[in-house]
Structures are given as C-alpha cells and as structure tokens.
Write a structure and sequence with these properties.
There is one protein chain. This protein is of the alpha/beta class and about 180 residues long. The protein contains 7 helices and 7 strands. The longest helix is centred in the N-terminal third of the chain and has 16 residues, at about 25-40. The two termini are about 20 Å apart.
C-alpha cells in the first residue's frame, strides 16, 4: 500500500471517457479544477479522453493552476488544454503519473468507467481517492467498498473519500492526511 503523502503533493484525476452524459458534469469539473488551483494543487494526468477531464484541466489553468500532461503512443486524448505542460512519457504514461501523485480526484462516472477507476486505484497502491458525488453518483462504488473492500483491506477502504463538493473533499482529504 502506498504511503500517505502531504495534501500539497500533486493530484491526479479520473474522469469519464468521451462526451459528458450531462452538461452539469462539465460545469462541476471546471469548478473543481478552479478550486484545486485555488489550493495550489498541481494536477498530473494523461491526455484527457473526455469532456469532463478537459473541463477540469481548463478550470485549473484558467485560474493560474499548474497542469502536467504525460503523453504516450498508446493513448489518444481528445485535446491538450492551452497552458498545460506536455511531457512525452514513452511507453506508459500511467506509471509515471502514479509515481508522482499523492491523491486522486474522481469525477462522477458512467457505469462503464467504474472498472477503469478501480483498476487505476488498485495500481496506485490505494492512494487516497476523493470521489466527488453531488448527486450520489458513487453509491454503487461506496456499497462495493463498504461490503467487500473494507472486509478484506480496511486500510484501503479508509482512503476512499466521498464528498458532494470539492471544498468538502479537500477538508476530508486534509483530515485523512493529517
């Protein structure tokens, strides 16, 4: 299991692939990016593959945030927001990203995204994962964690933070990392 790091360590994010199912998800991601920038949180990620990811990065960059995007030949993103630092990662951007971040911020998923989110979280060594869920979009994941993960790996389950707003998520993350 990965060691807990400072809240000041860079943040990664996970967002749904493709088009957003609702415009509100794009707006919330943009606001989350703005909030993370206000906290001086650097965001490190692969090229975004969906509207929600682009919105989060654009929100951060629009308010002076720092964004580093790792690219590789195997991943085809949908865009690179202007102002982001672009780094060629070779064969596997994910390994480089996981080695640099201290925690993740997760935007509400489509059902198909849950498996990808879970795989990345496990690969990260169970780094803290802040699940933004303004309308309880993570009820399925929360139930899975409470019923299965908490039994087999209670310390990992403690690293999942469910929050309705970025501010609430930041406060809960700060408490977890203190």
């Amino acid at each position: 299991m990965a060691m807990l790091e400072s809240i000041d360590s860079p943040a990664g994010f996970l967002a749904p692939l493709g088009r957003a199912t609702q415009q509100i998800h794009v707006e919330e991601a943009h606001s989350c990016g703005e909030f993370l920038a206000s906290k001086s949180a650097q965001i490190i990620c692969s090229e975004p593959s969906g509207e929600v990811g682009i919105a989060l990065l654009t929100g951060s960059l629009s308010t002076g945030g720092q964004v580093k995007i790792y690219t590789d030949q195997t991943h085809k993103g949908i865009g690179r927001p202007e102002g982001a630092q672009i780094v060629e990662a070779g064969a596997d951007a994910t390994k480089r990203i996981l080695s640099e971040i201290g925690h993740f911020w997760v935007m509400p998923p489509a059902f198909a995204d849950l498996e990808r989110y879970l795989k990345v979280w496990v690969s990260s060594g169970y780094r803290p994962l802040v699940c933004l869920s303004p309308r309880d979009e993570f009820l399925l994941l929360r139930g899975f964690v409470q019923e299965i993960v908490a039994v087999g790996c209670p310390k990992a389950a403690e690293r999942l933070v469910f929050a309705r707003t970025p501010e609430d998520g930041w406060d809960k993350l700060a408490e977890l990392l203190s």
